[in-house]
Design a protein that fits this description.
alpha+beta; 5 helices; disordered C terminus
Length: about 220
């Protein structure tokens, strides 16, 4: 009887752990996003029709979209950075220095432009709706081998009736190798931490209304 009770306690504990892990994962993948944003079609979704992993995160910014877009336009290494944890990124040799001002020279963006994540790694601008949506596409290669997945990284701005803006960020991964999930799934937890900080970094800068640095 005691052994059976112990087994039930163990099974119950494992079940609770699994449920907690699933809840934490859902929270990470959908941080800040409401159910409608999670299921809504966004710019760039069509590039990876049947993704293996999707993360949709969002934040409210008390500023109009026109005040948020310049911070998105200058994303990239050797440009405005990513407004996240620069120190962590630089431990990987990224040489990221997140801007605190809008720089005029970094505001022009076109489809097929290169947006660097690292001096040797970049994504391409795969979709652009000036002032509204920016979609990047690519992956991090493994040495000389191509990335074992396809990825899109979308930033979409949506107006709210009160004059504020919703910034919705979506990552979509399509695995091109069966084992790609073993690489991407654990890394997504790190991506959550960096993405959350990035969203807050953009929010804080846009709400502060910092003036453009025309001298750059």
């Amino acid at each position: 009887m005691a052994a059976r009770t112990n087994r039930l306690w163990v099974a119950g504990g494992l079940g609770a752990f699994v449920l907690a892990a699933l809840a934490a994962r859902k929270w990470q993948l959908h941080w800040g996003a409401d159910p409608r944003e999670v299921t809504a079609a966004l710019a760039g979704d069509e590039l990876i029709g049947e993704p293996d992993l999707v993360a949709t995160r969002a934040i409210t910014i008390t500023a109009p979209a026109s005040q948020v877009w310049p911070w998105l336009a200058q994303l990239g290494q050797a440009r405005g950075g990513f407004y996240s944890y620069d120190t962590w990124e630089n431990l990987m040799g990224c040489d990221i220095h997140s801007a605190e001002r809008i720089v005029a020279e970094w505001q022009h963006v076109e489809v097929d432009d290169e947006v660097k994540l690292h001096p040797d790694v970049s994504m391409a601008v795969a979709g652009l709706d000036e002032g509204r949506a920016l979609v990047l596409r690519g992956g991090v290669p493994m040495g000389k081998a191509a990335a074992p997945y396809d990825c899109t990284w979308a930033f979409v701005l949506r107006d709210r009736p009160d004059g504020s803006t919703r910034l919705v960020m979506r990552e979509r991964y399509g695995y091109t190798r069966r084992w790609a999930g073993l690489l991407i799934e654990p890394v997504e937890a790190i991506s959550f931490v960096m993405s959350r900080k990035m969203l807050m970094g953009i929010r804080d800068r846009a709400e502060a209304g910092r003036a453009p640095d025309k001298a750059a």
